[in-house]
Amino acid sequence: KNYQKALDETLLQKELLQKGEVSDEEFNSAIMFLTNNARSVKDSQLSLIMFYMDNKIDGVCITPDDYCEKIKSVTKESAIEAFKNVCLDTIYLLKGKTKDGKEE
Q1: Fewer CB atoms < 10 Å away: N or C end of the chain?
Q2: Distances 33 to 28, 29, 37, 82 between C-alpha atoms, Å
Q3: Cα separation of 95 and 97, whole Å?
C-alpha cells in the first residue's frame, strides 16, 4: 500500500547521492555495514564457500580480509563519482497475501 511512497523516497535518495548530498556519518555507516557484512562471511562455511565461488565466477582472487580493506579504501568522493553512473533499470514489487488470501 506504500509502493509510491517507497518509490518516491528511493528516487529522492538516489538523486541526493548523485548530487553528493551524503553526510560523513551516512558514508561511514555504509562502509561499516559493508565491512561487517564481508567479515561475517567467515562465520559460516557455506558463506565462505559462496564468497570464493562468486569470486571465481567473477575472475577475482581475494580474501574476505582483503575485500574489507578494499572497501575501507573507498573515499566518499570516489563513491559519489561512481554513483553518478547509476541509473534505474528495474523495479520489483513483492506482493503477499493476508491470512484470508487477499492480496496486500
Answers
A1: N
A2: 9, 6, 6, 19
A3: 7
Three-state DSSP class for residue 21: coil
Nearest to 66 by CA among 99, 85, 41, 86: 41
Is the Cβ–Cβ distance between 104 and 97 less than 8 Å? yes
Mean pLDDT confidence for 49-67: 94
* pTM score: 0.73
User: In this model, does residue 80 exceed pLDDT 80?
Assistant: yes
Q: How far is CA 37 from the centre of its chain?
A: 10
**Average of pLDDT values for 34-59?**
94
Q: Which of 71, 63, 87 lies closest to 33, judged by CA?
A: 71
